[in-house]
């Protein structure tokens, strides 16, 4: 007979956000069970590039969350053995403008970010090539963001779970949640899985791209949609790309709500040697089909930024699904429609970077502490009830 578990909090989803929620809740004194139908980092997290970015966010609630998360990630990376084990690099990001018009728009965007607390440094074409010697000539200039960092997402999610285990967090992988259990008054009393029930007064939906499905199990609507993206991976190389480097139009693509294919060049080296090349965005459901046109677009964009890549071999490509919400903000915090239900999903392509802040805020509310940021912009019930 399967043992019935009882705890304070069930976290559904063992990706980066779920792992962070479990860790911070445990550090706040909660007993936690972390459950996932697959392995740790088996969904969107395992298909990410590992970016911890402030550079691509305009002033507002997401940027505030990114700045909070950046501080928390820096603290986590400084804990004994954590930084090296997750390939954490505080290497900074470089945004490149190809025209004077684009540079002016980028400068205006950066000025707004600086007013919100971002370290954004305008750089001339000459300074750009000091930062990135192999960058293509002819750029108009750019902005350097020292606060941008990178880590290896699968390793990082596993490390957060590793840090949580001595605090009593129980990990249950290979278990599919089939129902959110509710009492007669409507409040949460746990979850049912295909291997038994887990009883708890609080359930955190950290199911990423499948967060809408989990919300539906509790009888509420959360319009999370998958937004597909490919990453091209080169053969291992010496550190020829020093920072995360991307074209200024990447920011517009991130903010777009279009379902159509969009590509903008993003190039970054890794501690392990391969260069990661993105970025593509399109809403095609959960179609994992390989797309040669997308690969060609990614390669073409990357070689425009770094011509040396023309002679570099691609080793592999992979695909993932960003959890997209219509207003580009995640759902974070308690759901007023179901007492005891919390959401921590819908971060789109920023979940790796925003995970630490999300977990921290969820833990604060669970433990009765006023959160460091207002959760009003992230309210899970902010969307109309009609079908999307």
What overall form do the CA principal axes indicate? globular
Q: What's the end-to-end separation, in Å?
A: 42 Å
Biggest beta sheet summary? 8 strands, mixed
- Sheet with most strands: strand arrangement: 6-7-5-15-16-17-14-18
Q: What letter string, H or E per element, gives the SSE order?
A: EEHEEHHEHEHEEHEEEEEHEEHEEHEEEH
C-alpha Rg (nearest Å): 21 Å
Helix content estimate: 25-40%
The number of strands is 20
Number of helices: 10
Uncertain regions: pLDDT < 50 for 5+ in a row? none
| Strand percent estimate | 25-35%
| Whole-number mean pLDDT | 94
Overall structural class, as computed from helix and strand content, comes to: alpha/beta
List the helices and strands and how they pair.
Elements: E1 5-6, E2 9-12, H1 16-27, E3 32-36, E4 51-52, H2 61-78, H3 82-85, E5 93-97, H4 100-115, E6 121-123, H5 125-131, E7 141-145, E8 149-150, H6 153-164, E9 170-173, E10 177-182, E11 188-193, E12 196-199, E13 202-205, H7 211-217, E14 225-234, E15 244-247, H8 249-255, E16 262-269, E17 275-281, H9 292-305, E18 314-324, E19 331-334, E20 341-345, H10 351-366
Parallel strand pairs: 1-12, 2-3, 2-13, 3-9, 5-15, 13-20
Antiparallel strand pairs: 4-8, 5-7, 6-7, 10-11, 11-12, 14-17, 14-18, 15-16, 16-17, 19-20
Helix pairs in contact: 1-6, 1-10, 2-10
């Amino acid at each position: 007979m399967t043992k019935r578990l009882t705890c304070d909090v069930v976290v559904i989803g063992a990706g980066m956000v779920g792992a962070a929620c479990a860790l911070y809740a445990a550090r706040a004194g909660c007993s936690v069970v972390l459950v996932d139908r697959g392995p740790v980092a088996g969904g969107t997290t395992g298909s990410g590039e590992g970016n911890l970015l402030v550079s691509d966010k305009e002033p507002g609630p997401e940027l505030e969350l990114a700045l909070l998360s950046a501080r928390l990630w820096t603290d986590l990376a400084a804990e004994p053995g954590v930084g090296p084990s997750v390939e954490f690099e505080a290497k900074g990001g470089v945004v490149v403008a190809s025209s004077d018009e684009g540079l002016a728009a980028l400068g205006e965007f950066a000025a707004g970010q600086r007013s919100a607390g971002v370290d954004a440094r305008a750089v001339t074409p000459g300074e750009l090539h000091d930062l990135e010697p192999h960058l293509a000539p002819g750029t108009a200039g750019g902005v350097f963001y020292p606060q941008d960092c990178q880590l290896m997402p699968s390793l990082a999610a596993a490390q957060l779970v590793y840090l949580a285990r001595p605090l009593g967090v129980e990990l249950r992988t290979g278990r599919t949640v089939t129902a959110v259990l509710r009492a007669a008054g409507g409040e949460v009393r746990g979850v049912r899985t295909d291997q038994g029930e887990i009883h708890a007064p609080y359930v955190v939906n950290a199911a990423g791209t499948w967060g809408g499905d989990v919300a539906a199990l509790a009888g509420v609507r959360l319009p999370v949609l998958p937004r597909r993206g490919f990453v091209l991976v080169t053969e291992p190389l010496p550190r020829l790309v020093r920072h995360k480097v991307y074209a200024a139009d990447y920011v517009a693509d991130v903010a777009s709500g279009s379902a159509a294919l969009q590509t903008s060049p993003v190039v970054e080296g890794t501690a392990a040697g391969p260069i990661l090349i993105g970025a593509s965005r399109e809403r095609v459901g959960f179609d994992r089909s390989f797309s040669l046109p997308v690969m060609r677009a990614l390669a073409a964009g990357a070689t425009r930024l770094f011509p040396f890549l023309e002679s570099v071999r691609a080793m592999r490509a992979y695909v993932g699904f960003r959890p997209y919400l219509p207003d580009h903000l995640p759902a974070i915090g308690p759901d007023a429609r179901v007492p005891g239900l919390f959401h921590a999903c819908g971060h789109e392509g920023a979940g790796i970077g925003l995970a630490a802040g999300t977990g921290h805020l969820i833990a604060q509310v669970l433990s009765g502490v006023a959160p460091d940021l207002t959760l009003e912009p992230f309210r899970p019930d902010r969307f109309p009830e009609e079908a999307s």
